[in-house]
Specification:
Layout lengths: L10 H4 L5 H10 L1 E3 L6 H15 L26 E4 L1 H4 L1 H7 L2 H11 L3 E12 L10 E4 L14 E6 L10 E4 L23 H14 L6 E3 L8 E4 L4 E3 L8 E10 L41 E4 L3
Antiparallel strand pairs: 1-8, 2-3, 3-10, 3-11, 4-9, 5-8, 5-10, 6-7, 6-9
Length: about 300
């Protein structure tokens, strides 16, 4: 694995951190759009590394295949591509995603002194407006992270280019991370790709009504080099790509230093299993270790 970066920032980088007022805005709204965190050179390098990845290059491969791995290959055709663990399988991709400045922004938003990678998913949304897989229905990430103890986890959405409604940018439901969830017997651990879009639309509307509020959708207009962050309980989704070029991005899921594995069960009584659980090392008491540096490297540590 690549050597971990030192956790320090230059004065110029510190000027790019969110202000206390912006952190308060994130805590209120559940999302934050950063200043410019990545240069054109870094993003060109990242895109080139992902093209190399798509041709089959791997610096290492997963020792076993997790049960719900997103792993697009050319045999899947011109659908929306999702590839997990790109930070582990590609040194070039991982080096850029571990940029301390990105980790420092996440640390301030999560009010944590340590931030680790939880998962990194490479996404490619083809310029095919009618492709069904291009539409990502409303969901929030914590539903899929029920074996994680923390409610401060968050996601950094990093597009490789300007991102807007035209090319299917990520869209947030403002303030939804503060909603109380409507009690339900349905299995919320099922991935959105396995569910009907209308079902998820109805769940969103029902939860808004349960909380006595309206659904306020905020499309994130993200200039190149900027990053959109959202809380693990913020409802979000995305629409079709109407542009003439693919929408390329990495969805970098992040965990605060206090996050750890916790047992969880589905409504049918079966255990919830996250992909890490068959990969990461074990803690002394035998639980999956979500601090395993191979799969969950630290991207920031220290006071800011």
């Amino acid at each position: 694995m690549t050597t971990a970066p030192e956790f320090h920032l230059t004065e110029a980088e510190r000027a790019l951190l969110p202000t206390p007022e912006e952190v308060a805005g994130y805590l209120e709204h559940g999302w934050y759009l950063s200043r410019r965190l990545f240069s054109d050179e870094e993003l060109d390098t990242l895109q080139a590394a992902t093209e190399h990845y798509y041709t089959g290059h791997r610096d290492r491969t997963l020792p076993v295949r997790p049960p719900r791995l997103a792993s697009w290959s050319a045999a899947d055709g011109p659908v929306q591509r999702h590839n997990d663990y790109v930070h582990y399988e590609s040194d070039a991709i991982g080096a850029i995603l571990r940029k301390p400045l990105l980790g420092a922004v996440a640390a301030l938003l999560a009010e944590a002194e340590e931030v680790r990678v939880f998962q990194a998913t490479l996404i490619y949304k083809p310029p095919v407006p009618g492709e069904p897989s291009n539409h990502v229905p409303w969901h929030f990430d914590k539903h899929y992270w029920q074996t994680s103890s923390s409610d401060r986890m968050l996601t950094a959405f990093l597009p490789f280019h300007d991102c807007s409604e035209e090319n299917g940018t990520i869209t947030m439901v403002d303030g939804s991370h503060r909603w109380k969830e409507l009690p339900s017997g349905e299995d919320s651990t099922r991935h959105f790709a396995e569910r009907d879009n209308s079902e998820l639309d109805a769940i969103l509307d029902a939860n808004a009504e349960y909380n006595g509020t309206e659904v306020r959708k905020v499309p994130m207009v993200i200039p190149r080099g900027h990053v959109s962050f959202h809380h693990c309980r913020t409802y979000h989704g995305s629409g079709p790509n109407l542009a003439s070029y693919p929408r390329r991005a990495v969805s970098l899921h992040l965990q605060d230093g206090g996050n750890a594995y916790q047992a969880a069960t589905r409504p049918d009584g079966g255990p919830v299993v996250y992909n890490h659980d068959v990969l990461v090392r074990r803690t002394p008491d035998g639980r999956p270790d979500y601090a395993d540096p191979d799969y969950c490297p630290t991207v920031w540590r220290g006071a800011l």
